[in-house]
Amino acid sequence: MKTPIRARVLALFATLAVLAAACGSDPPTTTETTLAAGQAADGDAEHGDDHGDDMHDDDDMHDDDMHDDELHDDDMAHEMEHAEPIDIVGPAPTVGLEVYPDPAGGVNVHVSTTDFEVAPELASTDHVDGKGHYHLYVDGERRMRFYNDWVLVAGVEGGIEHTFMVELSANNHSPLAVDGEVLTAMATLDVPDHEHDDHGHGDVETQEAGDDMLLTFIGTDVDPKKGWNLSVDWEGLTLSPENASGDHVDGEGHLHVLVNGTKLARLYGPDMHIMTLPDGEVEITVAAYTNDHRPYVIDGEPVEISSMITVESS
Prior knowledge:
mainly beta, 2 domains, eight-stranded mixed beta sheet, five-stranded mixed beta sheet
């Protein structure tokens, strides 16, 4: 991956302008920071949804087609707008941010922290000092809750500069703060235009995996606040978000999450918050893919695992 270009670190006050969408392959831009003036809100929008026909399509070569199903959850957003920041007791966490255009579309976001533990299993429960998760904003608008240090943000408009901000959140979704200042990091990126015609369609090649590659479902649990929390494990696969959409390296890659056969998101870690699912019997599939977006197979069978859950009508 190219060395990130140093970007200016911005302090955030109140709200920023709203926008979002697309991707590209130009050099990465960067970030850094630790504290920013207090900001709250929780729209809890979720990962992008790319409408591939099934997991064997080359839909990931058009990740900028993915869109957030819910950029706004009005009830939750209204509630969280009034959430008071929680001051950390003990060692003060720090947070840094880097953002990179993904050659296949979208923007890869990388978060680094100290003295902070991401705890997906505690999401939407009571505050525990030093634990929580991440909230991501694009141009001041809440885009998603996420649990891994890397995440792909789809649907970011190309050809203009965007501002990305990550906020450290308590388990209960209140912003975490030190001496009243919310813990955030920001970065700007001139997102390149991304042309769909850059990628061909047709039969997609597969990649034979080692016999030891295996995916395992840990669970898909109802989130106490809203949505579902997905957790998976794997063997024989090295997740390499820094090489996503790059050259193939045996045993490296990332995961795809599909709902009823339609791709929901690219996944760079073990945990994911899913905001909405269709009512009824729902099949959730997690599949292993190479850096260059080819499905891993063993003896012609895709390296994937599926689980059925029942979603009650809301």
